[in-house]
Design brief:
The complex is a heterodimer of chains A (153) and B (677).
Chain A: H1 3-9, H2 27-41, E1 46-48, H3 49-58, H4 62-72, H5 86-97, E2 101-104, E3 107-110, H6 112-123, H7 128-137, H8 143-151
Antiparallel strand pairs in A: 1-3, 2-3
Helix pairs in contact in A: 2-5, 2-6, 2-7
Chain B: E1 4-14, E2 20-25, E3 29-34, H1 41-51, E4 73-76, E5 79-93, E6 98-106, E7 114-119, E8 131-134, H2 147-155, E9 161-163, E10 169-171, H3 174-177, E11 182-183, H4 205-214, H5 218-252, E12 255-258, E13 274-279, E14 282-285, H6 286-307, H7 314-375, H8 411-465, H9 471-519, H10 527-547, E15 557-559, E16 566-568, E17 571-572, H11 579-599, E18 607-611, H12 620-631, E19 639-644, H13 648-654, E20 661-664, E21 674-675
Parallel strand pairs in B: 3-19, 3-20, 11-18, 18-19
Antiparallel strand pairs in B: 1-2, 1-5, 2-21, 4-5, 5-6, 6-7, 7-8, 9-10, 12-13, 13-14, 15-16, 16-17
Helix pairs in contact in B: 5-9, 6-9, 7-8, 10-11, 12-13
Classes of the chains: A mainly alpha (153), B alpha+beta (677).
């Protein structure tokens, strides 16, 4: 079959398709996750940026959770390779300007509105896996352990 | 089939005052309860629903269905009292018997999931002598101690079994029927059955409820169809089991099933079921192979007899060894090649699996996102509206805008996209897995072949050095091997014959079941059903004319044979009407059912409760025609209870000349809960 003929014989057009992006890049999804992290593993609805990042990283897959728990809880294994997700920073910015959180001294705290949203998310049947993992990880996510995992001290 | 209310009594005990409460006696026919807004009208009507255990049917789920007056503070003559406990009594009648129900609304010691029932009037009610029935627990509709079971018996309902969305079956819960009898003020007027609870997971629950109230015959057909479908599913299951057993048997002789698929297929024929066995490069049918093996056995036997007289032939053995060694080489090469392919397939399988998992994970997240969006949890945030919360510039719906080159899909589109991808990849996964399994089997058989050849070579070599060996040994060995494989093949053949019989029996049954399923008409309405729906349409049109329905000519209204709801030119009346016409439709439809039950055998209990039917200010003319229509229920021994905040004067104009009972509760300007005598 002659390719050229095939193409020129019939009129054709190229249309732009919409692009698919992973759900965790959606602002709404990530902001919801952010308020859940602060509510469930924060202390008094407050946490450092580092803790938020580690929780966010741990939720990405089970190996992350295992390596983190092994290092902080069982004191063995190598320091986990933690990457900070720029999308989370963006979500923090959005949430900050949407008045769901406040920032003080690198500590992120939920506002009353943020707490309201988080509480509703906890009640609803959404983010089930994330919620159960966060509750499970809570003891291992103290600020001290977070710093240790990030700085290796 | 009747239910009417006789008397409602609410009792509230407080600290330092009271007891407070409300005591209303109802008559048959139209009962109008007049009360100013925010004075406790809904509290009054909701406690009727609550006493009947129907709070789920008016849109209250787990939350407390009342204002704080029932459980916190009560204000009377500008003084506040702390509520200690509250309870509701309801006296109901089914035409022959009268019973009193009691349920705790708020009581630290009481259980709100228990309804006490006693024959006779409220005045004679003694908690100790009453029967206790439970609700909101398993079997509250079917068990002897379940309140709904009692209530249905009292009304004269026998609830149908209906299919659920998860494949099971359950009784049609009374709470799903209640929205056709009770229109709640807040959400009730947004549409017909708008407070219908969906969380019972009943398939098409909206239709099932209407079918029940109107007693449509279509329901029985539905049950029949459901049963047939379950039977069909079971038969398919047996079929699959036979198929699996046969292919397992076939694997014993390195064969595969031909002419029989996992599902019944069009060109099914009993004769076509065969077992194909790969021999070297080509495939043979089981019977042919059996014949061939029997022949070889005969030849080998004959040769043994011949050879038994000749001496040991070393040269022949050596030639045989060389031949076998060559075949060992070929088999080894085949095995290596097959192993490579197997590994490739395994890694393919793994990557498809990973892809599918990540797709499913993403789908789960998008479903969460969809719920969050639907509930509007983050509504009002500018990110949600597509602009940056700091600088108000438009931003893409993505956290890393630099990776996005085109428009991104909406959450809804993404879900659709993911569903398609998951479908495709599941298909690929199934195929790859099948291919992998086939290859695995191929590798196994090739390895067996290789070992066999190796063992044979070893034996032959040994026989050269071992003087005690004779030619005969090889022949005998081959004979035994052939006999064994013939035995196995015969066994498989017997099983195949059995499967042929069983499967063709199944095939007949499946065809019969399928035809009976297809015979059941799609809309499934009987002649009587259609005449009921047609009559309902006429009543509805008649009502709408009187109410001054004006969005379009009432004569264009129709009742759908599919959804049983009012339609215009086959479209459900969603938002095509003005708000006040929407309310007129609800009036007409629900009152229409009440009227219809006078002429036809139906499950309607002859009771209708409207909370604030003048929601959107349908003009006074139509309100008075509603009252007129509703007042007509008295001569048919039915009951319509209507609560309104209409001013006393205008109400008396609207009800001029009507036979009805007026309960005007705001003469004193106080709220509805007052000191009880």
């Amino acid at each position: 079959m002659d390719l050229k003929q095939l193409v020129t014989k019939k009129s054709f057009y190229i249309s732009e398709r919409k692009e698919f992006i992973s759900c965790d890049l959606r602002p709404t999804w990530r902001i919801s996750l952010l308020v859940l992290i602060l509510r469930l593993v924060g202390r008094g609805n407050k946490a450092t940026r580092n803790k938020v990042h580690i929780a966010n990283w741990a939720l990405k897959n089970n190996e992350h959770i295992d390596s983190y728990l092994q290092y902080t809880e069982q004191k063995k294994g190598k320091r986990p390779f933690i990457n900070l997700d720029p999308a989370m920073d963006k979500a923090i910015d959005y949430a900050l300007f949407s008045k769901l959180i406040t920032m003080n001294n690198n500590r992120i705290q939920l506002t009353a509105e943020g707490i309201r949203v988080a509480n509703r998310l906890i009640k609803l049947e959404v983010f089930e896996i994330e919620k159960s993992i966060l509750l499970q990880l809570k003891p291992a996510l103290s600020e001290e352990k977070v710093t240790k995992a990030l700085e290796g001290k | 089939m009747s239910l009417s209310l006789k008397r409602l009594l609410v009792k509230i005990k407080t600290m330092g005052g009271g007891p407070f409460g409300l005591d209303i006696t109802f008559d048959q026919g139209l009962v109008v309860i007049r009360l100013d807004n925010t004075h406790g009208k809904s509290t009054c009507l909701n406690s009727i629903a609550y006493a009947l255990g129907m709070e789920k049917g008016i849109g209250a789920t787990s939350r407390f269905p009342f204002t704080p007056v029932m459980n916190k503070t009560l204000v009377f003559e500008e003084e506040s009292y702390t509520v200690v406990s509250s309870e509701v009594f309801l006296q109901i009648s089914n035409g022959t018997d009268e019973f009193s129900l009691q349920r705790d609304i708020f009581d630290v010691h009481g259980d709100t999931n228990i309804i006490k029932v006693q024959k006779g009037s409220i005045d004679d009610f003694l908690p100790e002598l009453s029967d206790k029935y439970y609700i909101n627990k398993q079997n509250d509709t079917s068990s002897e101690r379940g309140f709904y079971a009692w209530l249905c018996k009292f009304i004269g309902w026998s609830l149908p079994q209906v299919p659920k969305t998860d494949g099971g079956e359950s009784l049609l819960y009374p709470a799903t029927i209640f929205p056709l009898l009770f229109v709640e003020q807040k959400r009730g007027w947004t549409g017909i059955q708008s407070t219908l609870p969906y969380y019972f997971k009943i398939k098409d629950v909206r239709k099932r409820a209407i079918e029940f109230i109107m007693d449509l015959g279509v329901h029985e057909l539905l049950v029949k169809k459901q049963k047939l479908k379950i039977k069909h599913g079971n038969l398919l299951n047996y079929w699959q089991q036979w198929h699996m057993q046969l292919s397992n048997k076939a694997k014993l002789v390195r064969g595969e099933v031909v002419g029989l698929k996992k599902q019944p297929h069009k060109e099914f024929s009993q004769i076509a079921i065969e077992i194909g066995i790969t021999q070297g490069k080509r495939q043979m049918l089981l019977d042919d192979l059996l014949d061939a093996k029997r022949n070889s056995l005969k030849i080998v036997k004959e040769r043994r007899v011949q050879e038994s007289n000749t001496g040991f032939d070393v040269q022949r053995i050596k030639a045989l060894i060389m031949e076998k060694e060559l075949s060992q080489q070929v088999t080894q090469d085949n095995l290596d090649e097959a192993n490579q392919k197997l590994q490739l397939l395994a890694s393919n399988l793994h990557s498809v699996d990973i892809r599918l998992k990540s797709l499913n994970e993403n789908k789960r997240k998008y479903e969460d996102l969809k719920k969050v969006n639907e509930l509007g949890l983050l509504d009002g945030l500018s990110v949600e509206e597509g602009s940056c919360p700091a600088c108000e510039q438009p931003v893409a719906d993505a956290l890393l805008p630099n990776i996005v080159e085109h428009d991104v899909m909406s959450a809804e589109e993404s879900l659709g996209y993911l569903k398609n991808q998951i479908k495709t990849f599941s298909f690929i996964l199934d195929n790859t897995r099948q291919e992998f399994e086939d290859q695995q089997q191929f590798v196994n058989t090739t390895r067996d072949d290789l070992f066999e050849v190796k063992a044979e070579i070893r034996r032959l070599k040994e026989s050269i050095t071992d003087v005690s060996k004779t030619n005969l040994e090889e022949f005998i060995r081959e004979e035994v091997k052939l006999e064994e494989s013939i035995k196995l093949l015969e066994e498989v053949r017997v099983f195949r014959e059995r499967v042929k019989d069983e499967v063709s029996k199944l095939h007949r049954e499946i065809t019969i079941t399928e035809t009976s399923i297809n015979k059941i008409p799609k809309d499934g309405l009987t002649k009587l059903d259609k005449s009921k729906l047609f009559k309902l349409k006429q009543i509805l049109i008649d009502h709408e004319m009187e109410y001054g329905f004006s969005s379009f000519s009432p004569n264009d209204l129709n009742i759908s044979f599919d959804s049983y709801l009012p339609t215009l030119e086959n479209y459900d009346l969603g938002f095509d009407t003005s708000a006040s016409d929407g309310i007129r439709i609800i009036w007409g439809y629900l009152l229409g059912m009440l009227e219809l039950s006078r002429d036809y055998e139906m499950n309607h209990p002859g009771l209708l409760i409207f909370d604030e039917p003048r929601q959107q200010d349908a003009d006074p003319v139509s309100f008075s025609s509603l009252l007129k229509k509703a007042a007509g229920t008295k001569q048919h021994n039915q009951q319509v209870i209507l609560a309104t905040s209409e001013k006393t004067t205008s109400l008396s104009v609207a009800t001029q000349g009507l036979d009805f009972k007026l309960i005007d509760l705001t003469e004193s300007g106080e709220k509805i809960m007052r000191p009880l005598p």
